[in-house]
Amino acid sequence: MKLTTIKALNDARNNGKSALLYSDLESGAETLTVEGEGTGDIELTPAMREAAERAHNEDRGRVVETDGRRIFIQVFNPPRRLIIVGAVHISQPLVPMARLAGYDVTVIDPRGAWATPERFPDIEIDSRWPDDALEDLKPDTRTAVVTLTHDPKLDDPALTVALRSNAFYIGALGGRKTAGKRRERLTEEGFGPDDFARIRGPVGLDIGAVSPAEIAVSIVGQITETLHRPERAAA
Q1: How far is CA 1 from each of CA 23, 28, 29, 171, rounded to the nearest angstrom?
Q2: Can you tell me the mean pLDDT for 10-35?
Q3: Three-class SS of residue 62?
Q4: How many independent structural domains does the chain possess?
């Protein structure tokens, strides 16, 4: 790997950006892309870009054969993050499940009675107002945001920031009636149908979940589907 490539990879990692390294397994030629923009010796073909998209979504390198060349695509993604708004009962099983699935988890809740170390041991708790916390956390393409308080005073500010970010997943607790009222409020903030389509609400896969643990399973499942099979999740 070239020194310039190593430096560019380090810069991408420090700035929380995704990078892909294409290496010709025979000639040693390479091209590095950061957030889709790159330079190098290899001219990227449609087959390479398609394979790279799958590798990026799967967080796993792969070899693609195209035009008589074997190209190894390495994935350098920043850590996946889950930001949970609301230190509620569902959040308690959701935190360990998401961590086991490979997410760095942050719980946001300014209500001290709910957001306690006793209820959420060994996890980062942010006691700021949700919009202030999310503005600082800067959700990106590797971030999922889930609002679970069922309180517009807390959920709406968080959704406002999340919808203006590149978060790959946005979920909100509440049924159809709640979602309808939410849309009315967010419309007043300047959001429209394309924005509302990004919000998964009721949050989670429709698996008949009832208990907090079951709902947490459905949320992790839907986040996973959105990450690895975005075309299916959007259907």
Answers
A1: 9, 9, 9, 40
A2: 90
A3: strand
A4: 2
